[in-house]
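Batch 3, record 17
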Amino acid sequence: MAEKLDVKQGTLALMILKTIEVLGPLHGYGVARRIEETSKNRLTLNYGTLYPALLKLEQEGFIVAEWRQSENNRRAKYYSLTPAGRKQLAREAREWHQTADLIAAFLSPRREGA
Amino acid sequence: MSRILAALARLRGALGRDRGDDELREELESHLDMEIAEYVRRGMSPLEARRQALLSSGGLTHAVEAVHDQRGLPWMESLGADVKYALRALRRSPAFAGVVVLTLALGIGANTAIFSVVRGVLLKPLPHREGDRLLYMRQSNDAPGGASMAFSVPEVAEYRAGAKSLGGIAEFSSWSITHTTDEGAVRIQAGLVTGNYFEVMGLSAVLGRLTQPSDDGVGVPAVMVLTHEYWQKRFGGDSGLVGQQVTLDGTSATVIGVVQPAPFFPGRVDALLNMVVSPHHVSAMMVHGRTHRMTEMVARLAPGASLEQARAEVAAVTQRMHADHKDAYDLGANARVTVIPFKEVLGERARLTLWLLMGAAAFVMIISAANVANLTLMRGVRREHELVVRAALGAGVSRLRRLLLVENLVLALLGALCGAGIALGGVRLLTTFAARYSPRAGEIQLDGVVFGFMLSLSLAVALLLSFLAVLPREGHFASWILAGAHRLSGGLRKQRVQRGLVVAQIAVSVVLLAGAGLLTRTMIQLGNVETGLRTEEVLTMEVPLNTPAQLLARGDGDSHQRYERMRQEIRALPGVIEVGVGGTMPLRASSMLFDVKAENKALGVGEAIPRAEMRTAGPEYFRAAGIPLLAGRPFLSTDQRGSGKVVIINKTLADHFFRGEDPVGKRLAWSGDILRFTPFTTEWRTVVGVAANTQDGGLDAKSRPVMFMPFAQEMAIAGGMVIRADSNVAALTTAAVRIARRIAPGTLIENVLTVSQIKDQSLSPRRLNALLVSSFGILAVIIAAVGIAGVLAFSVSSRTTEIGIRMSLGADRGRVQRMILREGGSLLVTGLALGVVGAFYAARVIQGLLFGVAPNDPVTMGGVALLMAAIGIGACWIPAMRAARVDPAITMRS
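Prediction for the assembled complex:
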């Protein structure tokens, strides 16, 4: 199994938003599974991490929740993106890319004068 | 935006329970079920799947807690717990809580009440637009009556032309006038103003329009602007008033509007009128007479101009005027013009008194805070053990600090709450008090700023108290716990703080007591001042038969006959001994002052021109008022129009001109250009008598020179009755007023006052001053005494073991008692010494409020020091006695 990573502050929200954008309305379990799969199980989310983050996004108006029947016929709370959430996702993704590029540029070996 | 949304949602979560935990649990359960189903699908047994799912969930309860914290405001919930804990702790020591809350309530209440007055009267921005750019100009000199002389129209014109930093100069002339409406006639106070007055003052209309430059000059219609106060009081805020015709002194005028509420200066007014209302104000005499000074000048700083520029320019214009018109200015008496910000001039009479009270209240606050601090420190020592244990059990030092802070906040806010009650009552009392000193008393209110002040005061006290407490440093709990009960004696540092606080309390109490003593002595001295009247059974009343406009238009008519009829009818009332008629009543200031000269007495070079009050008196005036004649004769009924002009002068004037000579038979005359504008002549008048001085300007005023003329020989520009009775003259008031009203219908009868009432007018503001400062002083002393006793008692109780050892080693009771007394005594002596030094400084600051007593009055200072010492020793005695009763056998064993 690959090395387990801690979820970095601020990145979880981005992952959740992206997951919901890709998969459409989704329950907490689905979000957790998708994130774990995408990270190739390097990330595991316990409830105490996931649900406060979902609640925070809901409070900020980026996602809305709604009770629905799940595919295997049980009640679950489904989260979907709001327009504000879509905008926030775009903004955060852009910022993240910029930061990642910047960090990558810093960390890559210097080839000055080449 | 999203942050605000989130905050709102969290607040909602903190207040209600939101949709509650049930929904969350359901969501988590559904998550768990899906996970179990997944594990089962991968081939686990249901039991194993459940175990595995629970393991990876990280614990449902933990999740619920975590969501909780995100949903609400966790610190708010623990704050709630802290408040609950604090309330419980305080309930457990009700005596402590009661004393602290009461002490704080007194301090906070007194400060809030007085601050609200200081703010309303002195600090609050004026309601005028850009009120801080408004200026008041004052012409004055050092001669009697020269404190504020107003300006003449030619003078105003020179400033208007010469001082460019003054963007606009408006004129205001105080005028009393009869306002007749359908409901009858009333005499009102008005201001005759130039059309630019409201523009310069920066006031707007709440109804209709205000005067404008087109209302200036002659041949324009008379217009009237009502003040908000008069409009409300007389007309109940009737908006149909605008456009109505009213009668002012018999001529017609139109009400054009109502001005916003604002303070006026030099006094309150009911209405503002354009100049044409008074034919005199637009006459050549007024417009061209340089010494005809009836106009107050207000100005607004031009954009970009500074107060310094304005002062320099005004000084330059003044200097040029003085050079160009030497006769019009009394340069020997330091004639000058000063430029004062309007806000300052409105507060000038109130300033010293209010800051005195604010200072006294602040001192009370210091003492109460010190006392509360001491109480808290002592209680803190007793609770130290509890706090340390709590800290060691994981509360954390910051959490403990917060607990203390919350506890002190609860105390301070409870104090503030009770203080608000005190302030509410106090403000009502103080507003009537302030109305004597300031036209802005109406602006006093307990508004947001005042409550903000109160809250910050409470917060400051709570913070102070919380940080005085000594808490262990993180990681040092063990030693504190080990020290345990032994530390109950209190650290040396703590004792030092307590002692310092007690010394400060004593010092501040001495300062307050000294102030109270000086003000009380002032009041007593003032009460002992002789009015100059030999009897108290005198009633005076002012019955002005004519308004100034009427006098100017048609003279005094049959006024002399009507005053004589009034005099005789009142004389016939039972119990009346004598009634005299006069232009100005005794013991009341006269604003009529003119230059005066004596025959064959040349004025020295650079000597100020002597001035005297002009008064008129009938033959019975002096006898009725009980003013002794020191020489010569009273006026006689033969001193009539047409007979030789005679005068009676008072002792001050006699001393000025005729020291060591007999004034009777000498001749005096009024002089000065200004007499051209009066009905009075400059011919020589023979002195027939010398009257004793009377305290016309108030009990604390220096007596001014006065020259009386026979009432019958001059125009009756004013008039009133001096009534003397054998006893209880106040009972005559109704009958006398009824007679006056019948003979002079529609006239405003003013100032119907007995001599003792007039005296009281002089005394009552001082009495209230003395009373307020004395109550603060007494309060301070009580709090300080409790403080000393408390600290010593605490010291005794924490040294019981030591005392026990000392006693078992042979120290007798007297020795122990002396030891404790010495401890208190050293605090007392230090506090007294500091206090007396402080009192000398404080007394110098309030010198202006004192009368007949020197600021360093040794009697007061000595008395105060003795009193404080006695109270202090008394406060030390109780704990000392208790120390002496310590039973060594018991203390050693326990």
